[in-house]
Amino acid sequence: MDKRERERPRVVLGVSGGIAAYKACELLRRLTESGHDVRVVPTASALHFVGEATWSALSGNPAGTEVWESVHEVPHVRIGQAADLVVVAPATADMLAKAAHGLADDLLTNTLLTARCPVIFAPAMHTEMWENPATQENVATLRRRGALVIEPAVGRLTGVDTGKGRLPDPAEIFELCRRVLVRGPRAAEQDLAGRHVVVSAGGTREPLDPVRYLGNRSSGKQGYALARTAVARGARVTLVAGNTELPDPAGVDVIRVGTARQLHEAVLKAAAEADAVVMAAAVADFRPAVYTTGKIKKIDGQEPEPVTLVRNPDILAELSAERARPGQVVVGFAAETDDVLANGRAKLARKGCDLLVVNEVGEHKAFGSAGNEAVILAADGTETPVPYGPKEDLADTVWDLVAPRLADTDR
């Protein structure tokens, strides 16, 4: 093995026997194409859905289910020992039970017992199986031991059934795996485990008439990055999403809204039981005073009637002034175009939040871009500059500042 191969992150993709096993092929493709060295370890049941030849061909590595294959290499020990990440997708109710109870009757369960790296379970099963007290107890046990068990998605299941239990989008599971690997040894800390965080994202739209609205350029990417990174750190995440076309992040409960007043209602409701609230959404400060039920017509020779605006609720100030729980941490965002830090400090004092992420917006800055840079102002007077980089890096820095504040409230 040359140096380049040794430096490739080593991922074990465990596949258990559910119909969603075919979706793991897409996850495998994304992992291999992005430079990861992937070893697929399916269960015997999984091979009823996708054959061993497929896993071997897509990964470039052998894929087996038995501890008796290549015994001289001691695979039941070595595979887990050598891994940088183990992800089980799909994870059936049976697999969660075996992992929680330390059973080891095949190669995958042996691998889980020997792994000393971060372990992610992406459950997929029928709603009744997911909600069964036995499954929930197994999930709680695995989380308590440091495993990252993400919440399944809501949607179409096998047959005509619909509900919670669907495997999250493989592209989003990949993003979660990537984030856990980026955090490296810190990923095992799970410093948000047991916490419930609420994140708002995207822009609001305030309708003028049935076809027009007042809006902004927010893509929602920064809020979604905050949601993803919080999941990677073990949090239960509620994402209140404004108008965005982004797919639901894996393991996140998503509430979709359109207007500022809808976002206000949804955030306050979710915040009632949250440890932290991060207001990353671009919320419209104003809305039209009058909604015209018919399309506003252009009349030749006449100027349009002026649009009168009224204020929308100040969600950040309300959250800060009326904390739903003792010790709740509130984070705001400020998009500024000039006197960025001066305006940011004034806004921090005015809103009363604990942290304020201040970034300059403009052409190719913040809105819609893949990267971001900011200065995070704290109520205690400290300032944390975050250089330009992926929006996930800024998100992780936000959680780096939130986590110790939450820990302080527990003392």
Automatic annotation (TrEMBL):
Q: Name one GO molecular function term.
A: phosphopantothenate--cysteine ligase activity
> Known NCBIfam families for this protein?
coaBC_dfp
Which residues lie within the region annotated Phosphopantothenate--cysteine ligase? Answer: 197-411
Q: Which cofactor does it need?
A: Mg(2+); FMN
| Domain DNA/pantothenate metabolism flavoprotein C-terminal, residue spans | 192-403
A cellular component term, taken from the record's GO annotations: phosphopantothenoylcysteine decarboxylase complex
Q: Where does CTP bind?
A: D285, K295, P313, D314, I315, L316, F333, K347, K351
Q: What reaction does this enzyme carry out catalytically?
A: N-[(R)-4-phosphopantothenoyl]-L-cysteine + H(+) = (R)-4'-phosphopantetheine + CO2; (R)-4'-phosphopantothenate + L-cysteine + CTP = N-[(R)-4-phosphopantothenoyl]-L-cysteine + CMP + diphosphate + H(+)
Classification via HAMAP family: CoaBC (MF_02225)
Cofactor: binding comment? Binds 1 FMN per subunit.
Pathway entry: Cofactor biosynthesis; coenzyme A biosynthesis; CoA from (R)-pantothenate: step 2/5; Cofactor biosynthesis; coenzyme A biosynthesis; CoA from (R)-pantothenate: step 3/5
Q: Which organism is it from?
A: Streptomyces auratus AGR0001
Name of the protein in its database record: Coenzyme A biosynthesis bifunctional protein CoaBC
What is known about what this protein does? Answer: Catalyzes two steps in the biosynthesis of coenzyme A. In the first step cysteine is conjugated to 4'-phosphopantothenate to form 4-phosphopantothenoylcysteine, in the latter compound is decarboxylated to form 4'-phosphopantotheine. Catalyzes two sequential steps in the biosynthesis of coenzyme A. In the first step cysteine is conjugated to 4'-phosphopantothenate to form 4-phosphopantothenoylcysteine. In the second step the latter compound is decarboxylated to form 4'-phosphopantotheine.
Please list the residue ranges annotated as the Flavoprotein domain. 10-177
- Residues of the region (Phosphopantothenoylcysteine decarboxylase) are 1-196
| Similarity section | In the N-terminal section; belongs to the HFCD (homo-oligomeric flavin containing Cys decarboxylase) superfamily. In the C-terminal section; belongs to the PPC synthetase family.
